[in-house]
Amino acid sequence: MLKTFSYCNPTKLYFGDDSMKYLSRELPKYGKNVLLIYGGGSIKKNGIYDEVVNILKENGKDIAEVSGVMPNPTLNKLYEGIEIARKHDTDLILAVGGGSVCDYSKAVSVSINCENDPWQEYYLDFKEPTCKIVPVGCILTMVGTGSEMNAGAVITNTDTKMKIGHVFRSEEIMPKFSILNPKYTLTLPHYQMVAGIYDIFNHICEQYFSGTDDNTSDYISEGLMRSVIHSSRIANKDPQNYEARSNIMWTATWALNTLIAKGKTTDWMVHMLGQAVGAHTNATHGMTLAAVSLPYYRYIMPYGLEKFKRFAVSVWNVDPSGKSDEQIANEGLETMADWMKELGLVMNISELGVTKEMIPSLADSTLIMKGGYKVLDREDIIKIFNECL
Questions:
Q1: What is the Cα–Cα distance from 373 to 176, expressed in whole angstroms?
Q2: How far is residue 181 from each of residues 53, 69, 96, 140, 193, measured CA to CA in Å?
Q3: What DSSP string describes 14-39?
Q4: Which end of the chain is more exposed for a tag (fewer CB within 10 A), N or C?
Q5: Radius of gyration of the chain from Cα atoms?
C-alpha cells in the first residue's frame, strides 16, 4: 500500500431475511415528510410496497411518491423528482428498488436545493454540492450496482445520448442506512439476475486492473471475484438458493463501497464503453458491460500483462506450468468467457441493437478515463467497439 488515503463509510447496513424490521429504528431520526421512490411497480405486486407504506404510516410519516424510475434513469425523470421533492418539503428520501432507484434518489438528494441546473453542475462540470443535501435511505430489491453503500449516481441524458456517473466525494451523500433482504431478490427474472452478477464482477475488475504494486486491496478483490464466480454458478442452476443469493448480495455491496479502491488507481473504461452503449440503446447495464469487457481486456492486456497473468492463476485457477505469460493471461480471459457464456450473458453489442454505423457516435459518447494500463484515444475506442460487434 504505497498511497496515502483516508477511508470512511457511514452507511449503516441491515442484512438478512428479517432486516425490514429495522426500518422503524431509522425513521424517527428524520423529519415527517418522506419521499418514496421506486421503479416500475414490481414492489406493488410482491407486497414490499404495502409493507413499506404501512411502516411509514405507523411512524407518522407524510408520504409523497416518485414512481416509474427506469433502469437507466433519465434527466427528465430527475427533473420530475426534484419538483415533487421540493413541493413535499422532503426530509428523507426512501429508495425502494435496485441500483438505478438508489442512484436516482441520490441524484435527487443533491439537486433539491441546488440553484443551478444539476446536469450542468454535477454531470458536465463535475462540481461537488455546496447546497443542503437531503438524506437517503435504501431498501434493496435487486443487486449489482453497490449503490446502497456509495455516493455514486448515474443519469442518462436522452437528448445528447450521454450516460454519466458522478461518484460524489462527500460522505454525506452516501445512504444513511440500507436494508438488504436477499429474499427480495429471489423473484428477479434470470436475465436481470445474471446482468447484476456481471455488474458486480466488473466493478471488482475495474478496480483490480490497475497499478503494479503489491496492494492488499487486490487480494481482497480476488477473494470477492472467486466468491461471485462460485455463488453465481449455484444461483444460475437454482435461483431460489438463498445462501448463494445472499452471498451475491453481500459481495455486490463490498465490490463498490470504495474499500477495494483504496491505495490504488482504478480503470472504469469498461463502464465508460458500456454506458455509451446504454445511452444509445437503453440496454440493461450489466449486459452492456458484458458485451464490451472481453474485447477491451484483450486490447489492454499487453500493457498490464503481469496483472492479467495473476488474474488467470489466482481467480480462474489456470495452471501456469510450461506456458508463457501471454498464454497464461489469454487462458484466463478464455476461462472468463466460458463462465460468462455459462451464465447466459450477452457477449456482443450487436445483440443489444448496436450497428456498425453507430460506432462513431458511440465513440463520441465515451468518456476517457486515465487510471488503467492504457489511456485510450478515439481511434482505440472505435477499434474496441468494432471488436465488440
A1: 35
A2: 17, 21, 12, 7, 15
A3: EESTTGGGGHHHHGGGS-SEEEEEE-
A4: N
A5: 20
Mean pLDDT score, 64-84: 97
Cβ contacts of 207 within 8 Å, gap of 6 or more: 217, 221, 260, 261, 264, 266, 267
Strands 136-140 and 33-38: unpaired
139 Cα distance to chain centroid: 15
Instruction: Report how far residue 163's alpha carbon sits from residue 193's, in angstroms, rounded to the nearest whole number.
Output: 22
Place of cell 436516482: 104
Q: How far apart (Å, rounded) are the C-alpha atoms in residues 106 and 123? A: 13
Cα 152 to Cα 111, 166, 241, 263, 361, distances in angstroms: 14, 6, 30, 19, 25
Output the pTM of the full model.
Answer: 0.94
Length in residues, the chain? 389
Residue 360 predicted with pLDDT over 80: yes
pLDDT digits (tens, 9 = 90+) for 118-173: 999 999 999 999 999 999 999 999 999 899 999 999 999 999 999 999 999 999 99
DSSP assigned state of 149: G
